[in-house]
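Okay, can you check this protein?
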Amino acid sequence: MKARQPRGFVDRTAADLIAQERMLGVIRRVYETYGFEPVETPMFEYTDALGKFLPDSDRPNEGVFSLQDDDEEWLSLRYDLTAPLARYVAENFEDLPKPYRSYRAGYVFRNEKPGPGRFRQFMQFDADIVGAPNVSADAEMAMMMADTMEALGIPRGQYVIRVNNRKVLDGILDAIGLEGDQPRRLTVLRALDKFDKFGADGVRLLLGAGRKDESGDFTKGAELQQDAIETLVRFLNTPEIGELWEIFQGKIRDGRFGEGLKELSEIAAYCSAAGYVGRIQIDPSVVRGLEYYTGPVFEAELLFPVVNEKGEKVVFGSVGGGGRYDGLVSRFMSQPVPATGFSIGVSRLMTALKNLGRLDVAERPGPVIVTVMDRDRMADYQAMATLLRNALNAPGRPVVPVEVFQGNPKQFGKQLQYADRRQSPCVIIQGGDEKAAGQVQVKDLALGKELSAGVEDNAEWRAMRAGQDLVPEAELVDAVRRILARRAGA
């Protein structure tokens, strides 16, 4: 059998996971300062609970990963974290405080074609307010996104939170003849959502006959008339709320259009009063491809340039977004339930922080290793490791790992090589003679390398026992603490 990784999935190393956990800790702290509390939902949901945006087919396995359980019910791996939250709130509605503020981090799964930087499994970190009908909640979401970017070390001027309103866009879609045409509306939304990636010309193709990418893959277009296409492109290119009103008010009689513009003005006013001018901007080009959004939508975009896989300098782009979804929870209930939230793409944001040099990739210290000189004395070595674990790992202090070497102990040099590879600060050595004398050897590996750097003779190196101290067993903990303190101050 050949060992091979499934396409679109990645393995994550200890360094990746440690850096990710530290980043999640920063985000979590920002969310909690706004009063959000954690909740966790399962990775699988009943397929029909994931939303009407999923394909309707006999085997609902297009876009999502699905299976049938022994009751012949279709289950799917979650596509995002929002639809599962809607189901959770509906099931627990009477027991939850309203508005209900929650956050959750977890992996989501897309059964789509993988590509560079596009994975089938990736992590999101969401925050949502359920039961808040006013757009002040949407403004607060945008502010929290801005605060999160800065807490992660992304300075002002290198990010922006862009805000739009689906009511405005819905009014325009109705005006160009797509009222009630849900499949084509969704195709149009997904085409408009590619504006930052493909530009106006690429969007024109997706709104028209379709677009072929560089690999030769063809994406079928919405097949709109040319005047409808130009209306939508003009909408995307109009940055000011006042301009939108002047351009489109005579052409659009849908009340949602005016309502959406009013909500955008309110959000701009709230953000300005709170000191977020420039950090949060109204931008009609923000669409968000999912169908369930019903009001304000927002996107966090990073503005600094990076080099892509072709060696070209490009703006990094979006690392998260969200919006208002007033109809999602109410699908399960007989009453309207307003909600708003946003999601951060964790893996993409980690890549951005790495490009900025702001990702905390410092590895945890390696373990203190108790070497094995005599296999018959394994109980002694385990007792020594337990003593060190208990003494070195006080509550609230950074973890100091301690382990007993569990490989083949015949060649002692292999144990030291293992310690080097694990970046161990020190090793503990106790043979029969040391045990009889009530003593133990403690070897500082970093100091040993430093002291023996100029020694070329093997016999001299063994004789000098560089970085190695013989101490009474009762002083073992203190000796290890001195080495750890020396390493921390290096």
Notes: The first helix runs from residue 14 to 33. The chain has two domains: 14-43+78-356, 368-488.
